Amino acid sequence: MTKPEIIICPDAAELNRRAAECFIERAKEAAARSGRFAVALSGGSTPKALYSLLATPSFADRIPWPKVHLFWGDERCVPPDHPDSNYRMVCESLLSKVSIPSENVHRMAGEKEPQVAAAEYQQELTAFFQLSEGTLPRFDLILLGLGEDGHTASLFPGSEALKETKRLVTANFVKNMSAYRLTLTLPVLNNAAHVFFLVAGASKAAIVEDLLGAKSGTSNYPAAKIQPRDGKLTWMITQDAAANLRVG
Ligand code: 6PG
Fold it and tell me: What are the chain's domains?
């Protein structure tokens, strides 16, 4: 993997603007190259403002929505209209405001029994990417967030999903939540053409330092395992989240 690109933005507004421009650039490139743009979205609170920005005319009008295929990097095991649903968050901030064909929206079925939902999503990925046995989907872009404990997607420290080397999607039991989460696995995340971490807020400064600071390379956090084999890794971080990094 090439060295990660680290972009430090003065604030969340600039982070979202930069991320939106990158999203558009990747979407246009992929659509021109393959006729489609396959992107896996992150959940959580940070990306909501990005999705809302992408829905505004000055950004939305530059995206070839009929060629965009939206997937999720992870999902909570709740119905799609539940307040915790990542699908609901994307619906409210983006899907309800742009004209993307419904068949291009590939949500994880959080309402179903977790193992069933994971198996169904594995099937959905296999069909969409026309995968043969043992091959991996290659997303044009995967957006990821970062938890203060170093988790990303729903790959939490110490959880079974981190050991998954074959399945594309798994139902991961998260002990400190006493709940299952659906998540893409490391082989899929590390097969993407471009992975983009979006990290904002002073509360992330410590974990950002552990992952990207002087001590980086020694951490065993799930986010440290994101190393695209043949792809680009970009960390887009707000100034306050990067406060402990010595830049330059
Ligand atoms: C989720 C996300 C998760 C998130 C991090 C950061 O479903 O919650 O996939 O990995 O990206 O927890 O969340 P915030 O952006 O809310 O800090």
Answer: 5-238 (3.40.50.1360)
Q: Give the amino acid at 158.
A: G
Cβ of 147 less than 6 Å from ligand 1: yes
Give pTM, 2 decimals: 0.97
Test site for ligand 1: of 89, 151, 238, most ligand atoms within 8 A of the Cβ: 151
Cα angle at 247 between 145 and 39, to 5 degrees? Answer: 25
The pLDDT confidence band at residue 247, using thresholds 50, 70 and 90, is low
149-201 tens-digit pLDDT: 999 999 999 999 999 999 999 999 999 999 999 999 999 999 999 999 999 99
**Cα(164)–Cα(39) distance, integer angstroms:** 21
To test ligand 1's pocket by mutation, which of 82, 146, 181, 237 has the most ligand atoms within 8 angstroms of CB?
146
